[in-house]
Amino acid sequence: MACAGEEAATLPAVPLQMAPVPVARTSPGSVPSPAASASPLPNPPSSGRTMEVPYLFGWVTDPEGNLWTFLRARENALSRWNGREWTVFPCPKPRAGFYELAADRKGRIWMIASVRQQTPMILNPRENRWETFASAHAAYEAHLADPPRFFGRHPGFEAPDYSADHKRIAFKTRAGEVHFFDGSAWHVWLPAEIVGKAGNFPTRQPFFDAEDRLSITADNEGWQWDAQTGWKKAAIVDRYAPPPPRVLSELVPEGGVTQSPDSLAIDNRDAAWLTWQHRLYKARFGLCVPVFSEQETDPFANGRKITKAWTDNFGRAFLQTDPGTLLMVAPRGKPPHTTLEIKKTAVDGVDVTMRATGKAGTDVRYQWRLDDQPWVSSTTGAVSFRTLSGGTHRLTAIAVDAELQEDPAPPTATFEVKIDAEKQVAGLIRQLADPDYGKRKEAIDALARQPERAVRALKAAREKAGDDARWWMDAALQQIERERAARVKP
């Protein structure tokens, strides 16, 4: 189906500022005025370490560490918790039904309807502005030139994938429909129409592979779309393939207080949050510590269990304990402070030294991330980078102390690599034929750090390569696909 003529409606946000007790309504250029009552909203307890968040549906965190959800007390408004107070943004249109929520890296909050009849809405809190669209199709088409990059945890939201040429879009609904925009019109398939036989078949999210072909896993097999021949079986590297199933005891890190927890969830920083004998623990780096001391009230003393966990940029943990309740847990005491030192070692290489000051002392661990790559954990404060791509890079580091508390304001350092990118990629492709297999693996890792340029060069070189070289080039392309998948997943 085509969606020509669908326009976005731009509306100003009229946020309702919610402090723990007083409430005030604001609009651009106006003075806050008191409202009647704030009693339905969850208030931080006197201890300051925990807060119950009774939400209606959906919750996400944005790049600035804010929590967004629909509170039961404000059913037709998005509510934001910044660690101190609630701010409520009333929806520009009445909310009818449930929405999937997601935050993109520009800080916008996407509300995508669970059914086609609902109105998709996007809130830009920085500009105090709402956008509404006639359909999800129209919302995604409006961002073809600058596709959204979604951030963090967005449960239930099937993020759209955009082709490398920014002309095509693909996504899957919770109901299982696969939607594809071919540059001029939309196509919608049920799983049975993809596999070509009657039945209700499991499908994963569609995506565009390294060669920009629409791909999907349906009925546990790979499929690709061709405009002339339709859907055909194909060998694909599925970026949405789930990890192998693991039993609960295998998820407990070494040094855990028990291998048989009552409940357990792994957060976005690879920390394990577990309950055992009516106490809450956090485990990581071979350590396992109780989150609450003997002098504090443990909110898990009543036997409640954890189903999901997320840690924001300020060290606050959000633990889902049932489908409608989040528990926010603040850090205990003063967390460590992280410093970064970067020393250039080559035209495309640097050495990084991470240090922690304050409470951390000598018993400290680190997490670091280069650009938008996945987080890496380390028990040392030193890391070296080689064969970095040209341009500006960002390195973020977080110190973690013996109580597994994190630096709430981790530093980010930027540095520039000046190198001829095309020559560098060509050299790395030649390195795939090096007699030293370790150097071949280093070349694959380096090519994966600049995927768009590497994919083009690998495809061109593959046409003239021998069998052995082609095998390593395919391995590099597969590594690029896996790392793209890792950046998509929360």
Quick summary:
The protein has 490 residues and is α+β, with helices and mostly antiparallel strands. It has seven helices and 35 strands. The two termini are 31 Å apart.
Tell me what you see in this structure.
With about 500 residues, this protein is of the alpha+beta class. The chain folds into 4 domains: about 10-30 and about 55-155, no CATH class; about 250-330, Thrombin, subunit H (Beta Barrel), CATH 2.40.10; about 335-415, Immunoglobulin-like; about 420-490, Leucine-rich Repeat Variant (Alpha Horseshoe). Helix content is about 15%, strand content about 35%. It has a 10-stranded antiparallel beta sheet, with no helix packed on it. α4 packs antiparallel against α5, α4 packs across α6 (about 450-460) and α6 runs antiparallel to α7 (about 465-490). Mean pLDDT is about 80; it is low at about 1-40.
- Report the β-strand fraction as a percent range: 35-45%
Number of helices: 7
The 3D shape can be described as globular
**Total domain count:** 4
Largest sheet: 10 strands, antiparallel
Low-confidence stretches: 1-41
Estimated structural class: alpha+beta
Cα-atom radius of gyration: 24 Å
Instruction: Give the spatial strand order of the biggest sheet.
Output: 4-3-2-8-7-6-5-28-27-26
- Helical residue percent band: 10-25%
Number of strands: 35
CA(first)-CA(last) distance:
31 Å
What number is the mean pLDDT?
Answer: 80
Sequence-ordered SSE layout with sheet pairings:
Layout: E1 9-12, E2 16-18, E3 23-25, E4 33-34, E5 50-61, E6 67-71, E7 77-81, E8 86-90, E9 99-104, E10 109-113, E11 121-124, E12 129-132, H1 136-141, E13 150-151, E14 161-162, E15 169-172, E16 178-181, E17 186-189, H2 191-195, E18 207-208, E19 214-218, E20 221-226, E21 230-233, H3 248-251, E22 263-266, E23 272-276, E24 279-284, E25 287-290, E26 308-311, E27 317-322, E28 325-329, E29 337-346, E30 349-357, E31 365-370, E32 376-378, E33 382-385, E34 391-400, E35 412-417, H4 421-431, H5 437-448, H6 451-462, H7 467-488
